[in-house]
């Protein structure tokens, strides 16, 4: 299994001989609702779009997960799996093979990888977006991805999970609280599913941010503090910190895992 972090929440997961592009923001700026004055993310140069993508996987319909400018650059014939909100967006962009997964539904990718949607982040008053469990069918290795730190208790049913990709620090706003939950929730999910490896997501990488919102955002926690919490709780989980663009082979040992099927 190989993982490449492409900044922010964007990942290339190579599992079961397939290349899965997750929540890609690779070209152009990141702006919510055309309000650059409020928040804008940008790079000095665009990221190269990976070749031979087998699947695009989208956890949410928001711009930092289903980035319109990036999706317009990708081949519309690439299959897409996404939350209902993300699936609606890519259908409107002209993608030809789109599967909307609701919670607990499973998508089979060429009998190599099973992808199960699990409850993820609450967006707005009622919409719960997706996290994902990806299982390599030949080896049984599993990857869990949730980009805001909202972890469903149902994960206990498929523990242990080998790789967890989730925030390990908090990003908070005054009066609102944490919009990215990492410090407490990352430890809770580690205790719940006993991963061999954890990797942080939602961090900036090579990105520069501007806008009024930055004056109020507060980051809480560090990777070293999280490693110390794992040790204090007798968890042997390794925390890897890839640099943007680095393709890393994840060191895993085979162990017994449960099926996603009920």
UniProtKB/TrEMBL annotation:
Q: Which Pfam families match?
A: Lactamase_B_3
Coiled coil ranges: none
Q: Which SUPFAM superfamilies match?
A: Metallo-hydrolase/oxidoreductase
Determine the domain of life of the protein's source. Bacteria
Write down the PANTHER family for this protein, in alphabetical order: METALLO-HYDROLASE/OXIDOREDUCTASE SUPERFAMILY PROTEIN, METALLO-HYDROLASE_OXIDOREDUCTASE SUPERFAMILY PROTEIN
How is this protein named in the record?
MBL fold metallo-hydrolase
């Amino acid at each position: 299994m190989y993982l490449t972090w492409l900044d922010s929440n964007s990942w290339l997961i190579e599992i079961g001989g397939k290349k899965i592009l997750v929540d890609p923001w690779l070209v152009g700026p990141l702006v919510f609702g055309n309000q650059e004055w409020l928040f804008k993310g940008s790079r000095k140069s665009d990221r190269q779009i990976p070749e031979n993508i087998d699947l695009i996987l989208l956890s949410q319909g928001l711009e930092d997960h289903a980035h319109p400018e990036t999706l317009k650059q990708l081949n519309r014939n690439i299959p897409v799996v996404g939350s209902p909100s993300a699936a609606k967006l890519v259908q409107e962009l002209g993608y030809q093979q789109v599967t909307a997964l609701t919670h607990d539904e499973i998508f089979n990718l060429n009998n190599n990888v099973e992808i199960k949607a699990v409850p993820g982040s609450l967006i707005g008053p009622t919409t719960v977006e997706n996290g994902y469990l990806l299982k390599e069918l030949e080896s049984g290795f599993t990857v869990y991805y949730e980009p805001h730190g909202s972890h469903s208790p149902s994960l206990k049913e498929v523990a242990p999970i080998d790789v967890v990709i989730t925030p390990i620090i908090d990003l908070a706003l005054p009066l609102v609280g944490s919009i990215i939950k990492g410090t407490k929730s990352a430890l809770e999910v580690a205790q719940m599913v006993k991963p061999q490896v954890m990797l942080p997501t939602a961090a900036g990488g090579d990105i520069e941010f501007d806008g009024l919102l930055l004056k109020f955002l507060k980051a809480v926690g560090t990777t070293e503090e999280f490693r110390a919490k794992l040790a204090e709780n007798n968890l042997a989980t390794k925390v890897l910190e890839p640099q943007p663009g680095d393709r890393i082979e994840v060191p895993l040992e085979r162990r017994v895992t449960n099926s996603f099927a009920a």
